[in-house]
Amino acid sequence: MKPKLPADPQTCPHCYVGRIQQSSITYTAIISGKLLSVPDFPVWRCDVCHAYVYDPIAIGQLQASLSAHQKAILDEKARRTSRKTASS
Ligand SMILES: [Zn+2]
Question: Is the pTM of this model over 0.70?
Fold first, then answer.
């Protein structure tokens, strides 16, 4: 079994050379065809390869709030499909 993170949490899990430091990004994802943008989303960023891993706690919180959001998005989507207009 491959561990997700090395024993030393300061070491980058991608290159095993750099060190990861807490940083923040604007997290973006497409959820049900809709762009989701979360500013100041906490991540751990490597100072060598610049790879980053999302903060697992923050991801958990995001997913919890997403399930509520997704319900609202699906409701909106259902409304939109009823008035399909060809906009260019
Ligand atoms: Zn790295």
Answer: no
Residues of the chain with pLDDT under 50: none
The closest of 14, 18, 36 to 27, measured between CA atoms, is: 36
Q: Is the dihedral of CA 18, 22, 23, 27 positive or negative?
A: positive
- Can you give the length of the chain in residues? 88
Q: What is the rounded CA–CA span in Å between residue 37 and residue 40?
A: 10
Domain range 20-80, CATH class: alpha beta
29 CA → ligand 1 middle, Å: 23
30 C-alpha vs ligand 1 centroid, how far in Å?
Answer: 26
Q: Which residue(s) pair with 43 in the sheet?
A: 23, 54
How far, in Å, from the CA of 53 to the mean position of ligand 1? 10
